[in-house]
Amino acid sequence: MSLERPAMATDPNAQPVREPKTNGTHRKPVTLKTLHQMAERAEPFACLACYDAITARWLERAGVHLLLAGDSAAEIVLGLPRTIHMPMELSIWLTAALKRGAPNTVVMADMPFLSYHASVDEALKNAGRFMTEGLADIVKLEADASFAPLVERFTHAGIPVCAHVGSLPQRSAMRGGYGSSGRTADEARRIVNDAVALEQAGAVMLLVEAVPSIVSEAIIAKTNIPLIGIGAGPACHAQILVLHDLLGMTDHAPRFAQPVAAMGQSLQAAGVQWVDAVANRDIGGKPYNMAESEAEALRQWLSQSR
Fold first, then answer.
1. Which of 75, 142, 199, 209 is catalytic?
2. What's the CA gap between 18 and 57, in Å, rounded?
3. Active site includes 209?
4. How far is CA 234 from CA 114, 163, 191, 237, 299, in A?
5. Is this model's pTM higher than 0.85 or not?
6. Digit-coded pLDDT (tens) for 208-254
7. What percentage of residues in the chain have a pLDDT greater than 90?
8. For residue range 108-164, what is the model confidence (pLDDT) as tens digits?
9. I need a surface site. Which of 72, 231, 262, 292 has the fewest CB within 10 A?
10. Facing residues of 69 across strands?
11. Do strands 205-209 and 45-49 pair parallel, antiparallel, or not at all (unpaired)?
12. Which residues, including other chains, have CB under 8 Å from residue 22's CB and lie 6 or more apart?
């Protein structure tokens, strides 16, 4: 497979971002080629979905290899009930924010519901906006084998595609909610065949969601491109989670997400501390001062104006 593409153009209006560091050293840029090489070496790479530049900067410093501007922002950021409510314009802005915050990290755009379904021309235009305005390195589509012609068109246009197979959140309405897939032999074979067809169409990466481990292993056996897993077992070349699930900030994390922190509780405690500090007029920090002569002049003015 070919993962090479010209260096991404930078946004001339963007503010310069201080070069991130990892463990005190300058981080070498991670590219799609880097991830392909890691997969070939059976060296797992780490991915997270997040939604702002500052968080992206810290995650780059932590060594995370790929950041996804997920349509899960509809739920996590906007408080909407499903990912299908994610606005296209906001998706582009969030993708660009991640790249500005983490310029040495692969940033994946999550194309939202109906942004690539109505027509090929509209899909190409929207994907192109993610690559130019959104500064994305790669776009992700929830897809099955029927999307192979679209992936082929994207590839022909020079747009790298990650094909998302298995459980597809954007189709959750068809099943009455989110759930797992590939739990029968027939369904598992269909998912594997989807992955194969999408690779053959030109996808440079795959993502599989909420399937038994044996399904992920079958995809790896039948394809030759990196496979990112979410709730799909440890065999995948990479793993991804929503950052807020990893940090313990969501009330009901999915069964496959094991938090490594309790930042929700820490955030609540910080809020309580701030409420108490304000109530006690003990807000901390360093106040701005005025020269005593100026302060005296102000006091005289106030006394005269009463």
1. 209
2. 9
3. yes
4. 31, 19, 18, 8, 69
5. yes
6. 999 999 999 999 999 999 999 999 999 999 999 999 999 999 999 99
7. 87
8. 999 999 999 999 999 999 999 999 999 999 999 999 999 999 999 999 999 999 999
9. 292
10. 109
11. unpaired
12. 60, 61, 62, 63
What is 21-261's CATH number? 3.20.20.60
The closest alpha carbon to 55, from 42, 45, 46, 64, belongs to 64
Calpha distance 265→161 (Å, rounded): 37
Each domain of the chain, given as residue ranges in start order, spans 21-261, 267-304
CB neighbours (10 Å) of residue 242? 23
Q: Which residues of 170-196 are buried (b: 16+ CB within 10 A; e: fewer)?
A: beeeeeeeeebbbeeeeebebbbebbb
Q: What is the pLDDT of residue 12?
A: 38
pLDDT above 70 for 5: no
Q: Are 133 and 139 in contact (CB under 8 A)?
A: no
| Cα-based distances in Å from 91 to 11, 73, 154 | 17, 8, 19
DSSP 84: G
